[in-house]
Amino acid sequence: MKLLVTGGAGFIGSAFIRLLLRSSVKRVINFDKLTYAGNLENLAEVSDDSRYRFVRGDICDSALVIQVLEEERPDAIVHFAAESHVDRSILSPEPVFETNLRGTFSLLEAARMCKVPRFVHVSTDEVYGSIEPPHEADENYPLRPSSPYSASKAGSDLLALSYFTTYKLPVVVTRASNNYGPYQFPEKLIPLMISNALEDKPLPIYGDGMQVRDWLYVDDHCRAILAVLERGALGEVYNIGGNCSLPNREVVRRILQLTGKPESLMTSVTDRPGHDRRYALSSEKLTRATGWTPQVSFEEGLKRTIEWYCTHQDWVQRVKSGEYQNYYARNYDRRDAELPI
Ligand code: NAD
Ligand code: DAU
Questions:
Q1: pLDDT in tens, 47-75
Q2: Which of 54, 244, 277, 317 has its CA 20 to 30 A from that of 142?
């Protein structure tokens, strides 16, 4: 297969490209704008592979997308590119709508024009919004997104599905739960807490910390996307859950235990506005269709992740310099006073 991957310099996209290039894939084109979250260091181990090509570009730039599609004629597009952070989407919603909605629209149009044989749209369980216990969302659960980020993802999912219904564009949509693992930008819960713990800094827990997320190791997510790419039915949605629901406090407590740091570093801060209380997914449809199940337990995945951050402090320090400092100050400094709650 020859694949065009958007957002391949980010956390999950780069794990997906590393996975592809360990297989017999024919060619991989990584189309990425290199925003604050895109980092070519994540792909250092594959950059010399003759099957790999990087194109710096914005998915909103239809002329460039069409040019690359015409040059390469890929068998499929796997679309990861997005503004992916909920807190940033609350502080500044505009880039989220530009990339996640307009960007997805321009990519779908280009795919339609160039008759791309398959389009995997990578989405999220956040589109279902907060789910009351004991329910789990299957793929027919209503969409009730809470944040600008999740609303933009819900909108782009529906747009992608409408291209299947209306234009017969061969679209498949995936909705995954919270990923974690190496190379995740330290704005997300797990890498932020690991990195702060290693520096003996306070670990900011939003509200009471009893919000529940379902944790999925990034390589398990990438294997699921590959399974959907190869065996998913067109026009369908597939949930991808980690089978590991935990409250945030418990996740942070385990990080402190594994890093040998005291629980006194946990600090309660003003809650995220519109914070979803609980996500819970059923991935039965995917398992039935492809046989996929998550392979990496949370215990094992968290150990591997902490080990990676401990041994890649140069990467961490580089991504935490510059823009990250401004973001951290905007989101956390005097949180009570600054956020519109
Ligand atoms: P990330 O923020 O780490 O990476 C996003 C990548 O997209 C970056 O390389 C960035 O440069 C690129 N990008 C952003 N805007 C672009 C544009 N306009 N044109 C081209 N490239 C652009 O994100 P991630 O955590 O790897 O998430 C990847 C995808 O998976 C997203 O669509 C996200 O919604 C989805 N997802 C993420 C999670 C999670 O827990 N991280 C869970 C489920 C679904
Ligand atoms: O569920 C899938 C989604 O998971 C993806 O679609 C998103 O791209 C990804 O960012 C993630 O969204 P969350 O908002 O769930 O992830 P985040 O890591 O930002 O937060 C996880 C939980 O931890 C959430 O309840 C908020 C809380 N939190 C987060 C941060 C950064 C804190 O308590 N303190 C923090 O400093």
A1: 999 999 999 999 999 999 999 999 999 99
A2: 244
Catalytic residue among 149, 180, 183, 238: 149
H runs (alpha helix) in 216-322: 218-231, 248-259, 284-290, 298-311, 313-319
16, 34, 35, 281: which to mutate for ligand 1, most atoms within 8 A of CB?
A: 35
Q: Is the CB of residue 128 below 6 angstroms from any atom belonging to ligand 1? A: no
CA 178 – ligand 2 centroid, Å: 7
Domains of the chain: 2-179+216-241+280-296 (3.40.50.720)
d(CA 268, CA 13): 32
Q: Which helix or strand (DSSP H or E) is residue 6 part of?
A: strand 2-6
pLDDT of 336 reads 62
Work out the percent of the chain whose per-residue pLDDT is above 90.
Answer: 97
Distance 66 CA to ligand 1 centre (A): 21
**Strand 237-240 and strand 266-269: pairing?**
unpaired
Peptide bond into 134 cis (omega under 30): yes
**Residue 278 CA, ligand 2 centroid: distance in Å:** 11
Helix (H, G, I), strand (E, B) or coil at 75: coil
